[in-house]
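Researcher: I'd like a candidate sequence for this fold, 78 residues long. If you have to choose between options at a position, lean toward the conservative one.
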């Protein structure tokens, strides 16, 4: 999610490389995030190869920002 917050969109291959996870794990996690409405997944072709593009939604950005704020409150409860 943090990568998508910074980049707004990515592709499956890039996310797999960044997370160092296998295809199955990345696919399952992306599916759960898509189901929650946090991102969209578009499958198609690029240069005659399958290409999966992932985009962060506004709901996903809000959820990530809320998560960061919760972490801050936990670390420094004031």
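Model: Candidate sequence:
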């Amino acid at each position: 999610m943090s990568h998508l917050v910074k980049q707004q969109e990515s592709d499956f291959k890039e996310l797999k490389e960044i997370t160092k996870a296998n295809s199955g794990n990345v696919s399952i996690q992306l599916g759960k995030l898509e189901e929650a409405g946090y991102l969209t997944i578009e499958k198609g072709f690029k240069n005659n190869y399958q290409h999966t593009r992932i985009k962060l939604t506004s709901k996903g950005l809000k959820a990530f920002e809320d998560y960061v704020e919760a972490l801050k409150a936990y670390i420094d409860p004031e």
